[in-house]
Amino acid sequence: MPYRFFADPAATQVLPFGHDPGLVALSVAIAVIASIIALQVATLARSSLKLSHRMLSIGSGAVALGGGVWAMHFVGMMAMEVCFHTSYDLHWTAASVLPALLAAGLALSLLSREQIRPAQLVGGGILVGAGIGLMHHGGMLSLRMTPLLRFEPLTFGLSIVAAVVLATFSLWIREALLASGRFSGLLTTAIAGTLMGAAITSMHYLGMASVRFIGVAETDMPTASEGVVALAGFVALAAVIMGVVALGGNTILKYRLVVAQLQSSEARLQAMFDTAVDGIVTIDARGLIRTINRSALKMLRYEADQLIGRNVSVLMPEPYRSGHDGYLHRYRQGGEPRVIGIGREVTAQRSDGTVLPVRLAVGRVENPDDDASRQLFVGFLTDISALKEAQAVREHEASHDALTGLPNRRAFFLMLEGALSRVRRQGTAVALLFIDLDGFKAVNDQHGHHAGDQLLIGLSQRMRGLLRQTDTLARLGGDEFVVLLEGLKNTPDDAQQVAELLLLAAGEPVQADGATLRVSASIGLACLRPGCELSSDELVKLADDAMYRAKRSGRNQIRMAACENDSVVLAGH
């Protein structure tokens, strides 16, 4: 028999009714406040990481919004001014809140999601609009009065459509405002809540436009029921209190969650700080050490209580120690940072005074109040001593002979270039000895290559012992050696004496693998004086040619070649 609710009686049987403007305004205010509170709860729910906390927020927000919607509807009903006596059925009145709670729960469930698809938005709008419409018209059926309650079909249908459209719009508007990024979070919530509250009250009063009261008037003019203002105020206050409690509870819950997350994050950071392989040191704007981790203490050979509160310059050798405080002072005065954000290699000083190379990276901790005196800096120290040692080994291997440890061909030619530059710049002279062992192949053939290697090592050590610290002995390869002599008082004669000493040393026996090994040497001596423009290759060739003349002359000899004023002079032993 639903048709009987939509009967269209004669116009003379329809009773007039109106609304109290003050109570209408109060109902709008209730809807707006409830919507703003509910949207803020949805924001808190969206940021909750735990499902249980999110569901608790949605549930409490649904109670606040659903209760606010129901309170708005109830106050709107009490705002009616009719010409007959009205009362309410307690059971129908209580039951009418259920659709409002379900609609509010669905709305907040949608709004608490990270992303809402258009289909979900429309579907949610249909269900929310239907729920609020059901709450409204169900609440209307709780009225107890002498006249009959009927609905005008067209307006009734429009009110349902409006409920769905306005509900969908209310859900969409907040997402659109958030996506635009034009307003802050609180302002977005206030705007969206105001629009949602207006949409909810529009649903109610559009529904009221379809109502028809049919019967006989009991008073001359439509009036409000006695005591309705006090009751409406009580309902409004209860709805606001319920919303504030829900919002406050969710805010406290969110605060506790944030505190728990901060504590967890702090514990993780502390664990990372304590277990980090690199050293980490935190200092303040005055350069005083605030924190230091275990790796840094182990690296620098300190205990924590020896460093906390002391100036970080204690970890620096001079001259960096003296200049550190001045650098911090200039930075506090507005100077440009020269090390912040730039990794570089520096030298740190341990507690025992020894130093070690480290790679230092300094970061600045962001200071919200921009107070330079409260600025903190974090330094990350990486011990690169092993890297430096490996680098030194690689450089040594690249420039030295693997067997004898003497400079190799590459290193020797670099030294020779430097010596020739000094000849041109300072007007000094240099001498170059080219040494080739006689009979070395026979040693290898008779005693093996290991014995030959031992012979080369022994002879190189013996020759090195006869030279000055400023002289250079290098192995070019095989059984060929060169000696670079600089700073001699009488270059040809002094060089000749050195060559004779080396010739005698090469002829002395060497013990290797239980055998006595003997060789001799052929030495070419080349002298270069200022005014003779020879390159390093030409000077070596000059000495090499002199060495071959010694070989052709019977070996175990010295032959000399000198360059004076671009002329080459040859001489014998």
Automatic annotation (TrEMBL):
<dbReference type="InterPro" id="IPR000014">
    <property type="entry name" value="PAS"/>
</dbReference>
<feature type="transmembrane region" description="Helical">
    <location>
        <begin position="56"/>
        <end position="80"/>
    </location>
</feature>
<keyword id="KW-0548">Nucleotidyltransferase</keyword>
<dbReference type="GO" id="GO:0052621">
    <property type="term" value="F:diguanylate cyclase activity"/>
</dbReference>
<feature type="transmembrane region" description="Helical">
    <location>
        <begin position="156"/>
        <end position="173"/>
    </location>
</feature>
<dbReference type="InterPro" id="IPR043128">
    <property type="entry name" value="Rev_trsase/Diguanyl_cyclase"/>
</dbReference>
<dbReference type="Pfam" id="PF00990">
    <property type="entry name" value="GGDEF"/>
</dbReference>
<feature type="transmembrane region" description="Helical">
    <location>
        <begin position="227"/>
        <end position="247"/>
    </location>
</feature>
<keyword id="KW-1133">Transmembrane helix</keyword>
<dbReference type="InterPro" id="IPR005330">
    <property type="entry name" value="MHYT_dom"/>
</dbReference>
<dbReference type="InterPro" id="IPR035965">
    <property type="entry name" value="PAS-like_dom_sf"/>
</dbReference>
<dbReference type="InterPro" id="IPR000160">
    <property type="entry name" value="GGDEF_dom"/>
</dbReference>
<feature type="transmembrane region" description="Helical">
    <location>
        <begin position="118"/>
        <end position="136"/>
    </location>
</feature>
<dbReference type="InterPro" id="IPR052155">
    <property type="entry name" value="Biofilm_reg_signaling"/>
</dbReference>
<feature type="transmembrane region" description="Helical">
    <location>
        <begin position="185"/>
        <end position="207"/>
    </location>
</feature>
<dbReference type="InterPro" id="IPR029787">
    <property type="entry name" value="Nucleotide_cyclase"/>
</dbReference>
<keyword id="KW-0808">Transferase</keyword>
<feature type="domain" description="PAS">
    <location>
        <begin position="265"/>
        <end position="335"/>
    </location>
</feature>
<feature type="domain" description="GGDEF">
    <location>
        <begin position="428"/>
        <end position="563"/>
    </location>
</feature>
<protein>
    <submittedName>
        <fullName>Diguanylate cyclase</fullName>
        <ecNumber>2.7.7.65</ecNumber>
    </submittedName>
</protein>
<dbReference type="Pfam" id="PF00989">
    <property type="entry name" value="PAS"/>
</dbReference>
<keyword id="KW-0812">Transmembrane</keyword>
<dbReference type="InterPro" id="IPR013767">
    <property type="entry name" value="PAS_fold"/>
</dbReference>
<keyword id="KW-0472">Membrane</keyword>
<feature type="transmembrane region" description="Helical">
    <location>
        <begin position="23"/>
        <end position="44"/>
    </location>
</feature>
<dbReference type="Pfam" id="PF03707">
    <property type="entry name" value="MHYT"/>
</dbReference>
<feature type="transmembrane region" description="Helical">
    <location>
        <begin position="92"/>
        <end position="111"/>
    </location>
</feature>
<feature type="domain" description="MHYT">
    <location>
        <begin position="19"/>
        <end position="214"/>
    </location>
</feature>
